[in-house]
Design goal:
homodimer, about 180 residues, Jelly Rolls, 2 domains, two-stranded antiparallel ribbon, 1 helix, 16 strands
């Protein structure tokens, strides 16, 4: 039996079935994706070495600066594990917010900040794993001179969506 | 307020608190880790470009060949989201097995196989996202000529641990 090859090098292809509820409901969904971008950022020579796709630019009042989002695993009742790749351009960040069921971040590229309300910001970078407890007010984003890419995992998604609060002001951000 | 820096380039450091139940229970655990290895595999010149630590070599009857494991997020009742980095050397693979609550794989490096019982094996490689449905009999591992690293996420961990079945024989593996 020869293995089926889905997607060659540098190619983006989706192996998802048209309707997983009808055809072979126990088939794994192998989502075959490769990042197209592999370039140097202008500001700091840190390689923007994306493993997962950068996705689409986010239009939202909950972000300042350029932010890209690609859903890797949608919210559903089978896996209960929404996952997404998020890329912040230098200087970009999200607003203060909380997750009722918590969140985990896996930093895959670049450097940035993670901060909880009332505490010093922490520098986060490639290889960091960040466990954000339920209902903790926090924000994350890129450094001034580096992009930041992380995979986000919404834990206990049945407890509800993120609660968005006020933006991280220029004053707060620039004081880091 | 200046940001606190945890861990410089190439350094492995753990930011975990001694007892999260007693001290500042809402602090995020920023686990600051960086992979030490960044080398070329001998067999195929694919870069073993590890983002997360390779961890310890696994001693288990459920694996054939060299397999390394690093827990990124332990099983607990807060996040319900165990995560681990698994690296298979060329030719290494796990036995057939099932997950009562499913599993998601994020391939971060290399190339290998994913196969479900009675179906052709599928080639998986860097950037692939694999959603494995609950109770589906399957195995995964490296190609003959490439290592494979993936992050594994046990979904719905409250439904139980993996159920291990028979090994993938040399005959099965070599026929791929």
């Amino acid at each position: 039996m020869k293995a089926t090859i889905f997607g060659g090098k540098g190619k983006i292809e989706f192996g998802e079935r048209p309707d997983p509820k009808i055809q072979e409901p126990t088939d794994a969904i192998v989502r075959v994706v490769r990042a197209k971008e592999r370039k140097m950022t202008e500001s700091n020579e840190l390689s923007e070495n994306l493993i997962f796709p950068k996705g689409e630019k986010v239009v939202s009042e909950n972000f300042i600066g350029g932010v890209w989002l690609e859903m890797l695993v949608d919210k559903d009742d089978t896996f209960n594990c929404p996952m997404y790749n998020v890329t912040f351009e230098p200087g970009a960040r999200n607003s203060w917010h909380t997750h009722p069921g918590g969140q985990i971040l896996l930093v895959t590229s670049g450097r940035g900040y993670y901060q909880e309300k009332g505490k010093p910001a922490r520098v986060i970078q490639t290889g960091n794993v960040i466990k954000i407890y339920p209902d903790v007010d926090h924000w994350h984003g890129a450094a001034v001179d580096s992009q930041l890419s992380h995979i986000g995992i919404t834990t206990n998604p049945q407890k509800g969506d993120a609660v968005w609060l006020e933006p991280v002001s220029e004053e707060e951000y620039k004081s880091l």
